[in-house]
Specification:
Layout: E1 3-8, H1 15-27, E2 30-36, H2 47-57, E3 64-69, H3 73-80, E4 84-89, H4 92-108, E5 114-119, H5 129-137, H6 148-157, H7 167-170
Parallel strand pairs: 1-2, 2-3, 4-5
Subunit structure: Homohexamer.
Family: Belongs to the bacterial CoaD family.
Subcellular location: Cytoplasm
Length: 171
């Protein structure tokens, strides 16, 4: 069975993340979306909340599991007996950063962990969790960035009322 891990913060999960998840799930027999508990960041959502959100967002994908981890990806992958990590790329700046991490992971894992890069579909290339949070914090419309239930949760975290825009205004 071909398995892969897609690690990330997913704070919050965006349509760009979901694009990579769907495409990776079509390539691998099993995909584990793994929420990183990154102690260097102050997330909007707890690890447990992000896991639940991802479970809801991927419930239609039978070969996708959602998990969480702390520490090094290579240790987590070894524990799961998975040898492929998936990473999404939006721009050349992502590539430089992700390439360095991929090479480090391959070296530290003794060649046991490879990274496969999937370029984000062009319609989501502008999207990042950070920009979604910033837009929402200032009452901006994030309906084109995240699923509706995620938008509702993000606005709630900022203490804003969720107002769904009419479809004509979102297009």
């Amino acid at each position: 069975m071909k398995a892969a891990i897609y690690p990330g913060s997913f704070d919050p999960v965006t349509f760009g993340h979901l694009d990579v998840i769907r495409r990776a799930a079509s390539i691998f027999d099993e995909l584990t979306v793994s929420v990183l508990n990154n102690t260097q960041k102050t997330p909007l959502f707890s690890v447990e909340e992000r896991v639940r959100i991802l479970e809801e967002a991927t419930k239609d994908l039978p070969n996708v599991k959602v998990d969480s981890f702390s520490g090094l990806l290579i240790d987590y992958a070894r524990k799961k007996d998975v040898h492929v990590a998936i990473r999404g790329l939006r721009a050349i700046t992502d590539f430089e950063y992700e390439l360095q991490i991929a090479q480090t992971n391959r070296k530290l894992s003794g060649g046991e962990l490879d990274t496969i890069f999937l370029t984000t579909s062009l319609e989501y290339a502008y999207l990042s969790s950070s920009s979604v949070k910033e837009i929402a914090e200032f009452h901006g419309d994030i309906s084109q960035c995240v699923p509706e239930f995620v938008a509702r949760l993000v606005y709630e975290k900022f203490g804003h009322e969720y107002k769904q825009q009419p479809l004509a205004e979102r297009l």
